[in-house]
Write a structure and sequence with these properties.
Layout lengths: L4 H20 L4 H15 L9 H22 L18 H4 L2 H7 L2 H12 L4 H8 L3 H19 L6 H5 L4
């Protein structure tokens, strides 16, 4: 017997929201999350009893995220003047580049693998099933994505002399 849908939302809502944030950014994640669960609610009665609900929800979230990004790319945003870029010299890595901005720079495959495995909690076998491909390819893409994130978020190396003003 299937669990009531509100239990599914409670059990998997957090993981799906983390995936949505990684795919479309924190500003639009709530909308994509809501669209995901509306679609899931409609299809839930047809879901087989032995289905992996979390992987199914992540698949729906991925598709909704892609739809959202495509729609956003088609919308024009008029502005009076192009804003100047903020001066980021002297700022630390966390202030200069947050996680969502770094995720947005990753290639799609790496971003999805990182989101599904590290943020959504899916094992690599399920990530491969959702995205298509092998478990090894999903593992490699996630590893490459994490390495790129670490490089993007790493601040400048600070020496003891710079911190303390003298050699130790």
């Amino acid at each position: 017997m299937q669990r009531a849908f509100d239990h599914v939302v409670t059990a998997h809502g957090g993981a799906v929201l983390r995936v949505c944030r990684a795919l479309v950014g924190p500003d639009d994640a709530d909308d994509v999350w809501a669209e995901t669960f509306v679609s899931a609610m409609r299809a839930y009665p047809e879901l087989p009893q032995d289905a992996n609900v979390e992987a199914w929800l992540v698949t729906i979230a991925r598709r909704k995220g892609i739809d959202h990004l495509r729609a956003r790319a088609r919308r024009a945003l008029p502005v009076e003047a192009v804003p100047e870029r903020a001066d980021t010299t002297g700022l630390g890595a966390a202030e200069r580049l947050d996680l969502y901005a770094a995720l947005a720079t990753l290639p799609t495959r790496q971003r999805e693998c990182v989101a599904f495995h590290h943020l959504g909690g899916l094992p690599y076998a399920e990530v491969a099933a959702v995205l298509g491909g092998t478990e090894a390819a999903a593992r490699r893409a996630a590893a490459d994505g994490v390495r790129a994130l670490r490089a993007a978020l790493a601040g400048p190396v600070t020496t003891d002399e710079e911190v303390y003003g003298a050699r130790l």
